[in-house]
Here is the input.
Amino acid sequence: MINQFRKLNPINLLLLLAYTFFMRIVIFYEMPAQLNFDFLEPFARLMINIDLDKAFSPSTNIFFASVLVFSQALIFNRIINNHNLLSKPSFLPALMFITGASLFLPFMVLSPALLCNFLLIWLIDKFLKLNKSLNSITTVFDIGMIIAIGTLIYFPFMAMLIMIFLSLMLFRSFNWREWIAGLIGFLTVFFFLAVFYYWKDNLSSFYQIWKPLGNKFPSVFKINYNDYLVLIPVALIIILASLQLRENFFRSFISTRKGFQMLFFMFIIAAVSFYLKPDFRTWHFLLCVPPGAVLLAYYFSNAKKRWFYETLFLLFIISVQYFLFV
Here is the structure.
């Protein structure tokens, strides 16, 4: 299967579509009685107040979630191939993206994090372009606005502001205009939101938006470890990929090395940003899928022993399906 997706064969598009729905068999088999979908944060509903819970039945919700994941996988695949992060162009990034977006049942329904993944993929493209631009002020300003829009959808997306400064340190020499351009882009969106709150004579509520920024990082976690056993094969593949990346690190292009460093930081920030949402759900970790999928794809793109990597991926899929059903 891996060998098939190592090629840019058009038939892989149909295989990916079938694979997307195959990985969601369990949720179609055990259809939830009701699914809630709030596609905006409460503070943004003052401008756009649409109730989609009644518009989407559970089956419609799951179907559209599958279509969105498939669409994201294709966009993501094109971006990774365009920036030459892997040894050669392939459909492996899309395959790993769909697999990562199918690890848990909460990943398979419409959620704010799923919508934000479109913006996160766009950000990855923007960040990787920083190294190729003579003047990145406009690009960084756009990045700030994208993060602000994502924050309206899902508040923890604001943590991606940190990525602006980390990426500028990785890809650019210091230019104070670029460093503030991202913040200005972010604040521009919220300036218009503040004006709207003021117009509605509700400015005091606008200040409440920022309360989660004062949350302390939790020191105690309540985790049911049985729910996360499926991450064992993921961790194994990531370890193998890290060893392989380390071996090839100094033989890679500088832009490739910096790209993987940027994706590593993005993965960490996406994971820890859950603390900005006290009532966060498991689907929050969908934000980790794009940067994580690149590392998984890197391993399978460079692995040499076919019998081993094909068997490893097959066991990975079997374990995902097993833990989803049990």
Remarks:
- The chain has a mean pLDDT of 83.
- DSSP finds 14 helices and no strands in the chain.
